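Expect chain and fold; see below:
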Amino acid sequence: MADELDFAMSKFLANCSPREFNAYPTYGYVFSMVLSVSSRIFVGESYCRNEEWLQVISAYLSEVVTTAKALRPYHPILRPLFRPFLAPKGRMSGIMKKAEQILLPAIKDRQESYSEHLDLLQFLVDTSPDGKIMPIILKLLVLTSAALHTSTMAAVNALYDMCSRPEHIESLRNEAVATLQADNQSWQFSTIKQLKQLDSFMKESLRLSDSSEIPTGMYINIAAGPMSRDPTFYDEPNTFDPGRFHRPSAGSEKATPQPEYEFTGIERGNVVWGNGRLTCPGRWYASAMNKLIIASLLVRYEIKFPEGQATRPQSIYSDGTAIPSPTQEILLREHPQSSLARV
């Protein structure tokens, strides 16, 4: 993950320098990082930087969202009648055909010879009961898409909250630098687990990032926003407190949060990850990836909103989902001490 992120950051932020701040699209940057890292985990090093494959993933996700928005207002019985006019199947068929063209050689090779690839594609090939190509590709696209926008929105919200509360940036950076240096300048899962302040900040950002849509066969919306601001569950619920989930336990000087108060935890009042047996099983992966993306940005760059902006932009509400502004930019400048935390 760290290697792929380093490659993607160097490519996206190639013109960033220590002399002046440069503006970058926040959502576009984070989405690109999530896409790159997830692709490395899902299809391996041989395909994760294939521009055609990255375009296929983005096109598939866009088409799924477009089709859902176009057909959702109509009764399920009527959707097949309206789909040819509102969301022609030909578009999705073209995307699937392109995906098959790209991945077919890799899947065939892995089916015909023993392989030790540590990626999702290998797992899907190994667990495919009949070895059919298209079901493997479809599962891969679905799982990849599921990892993209939800993780991107969480990381973007955290960056917006960070820029609107710049007094916390230095302490978060210091934690990231110290943690990285203590682990031989190498991002490992154990390193990421030590980012307790960042974990708490991200969880507080997630708590106050408004509601999330959870469809289950029919259109349902859980009141995640009101629950996250309910004083029954949280003290001073409308106050952004970055240390809310990172405080010493009673009788202890060291902050050791209970599992339910970690970023991936599900305490009372928190339904962001779902609940019960339908709780998001990929939240540990999403947590590690987002911490890596944000911490890497902190140790290398100075971060702030454009001049004159002190508050985060309003989220956009669409079909019951609160989406952080897709157009907001952040300013980055190479940190004068970035050499102390180079991977």
About this structure: Residues 133-164 form the longest helix (32 residues). The chain has twelve helices and five strands.
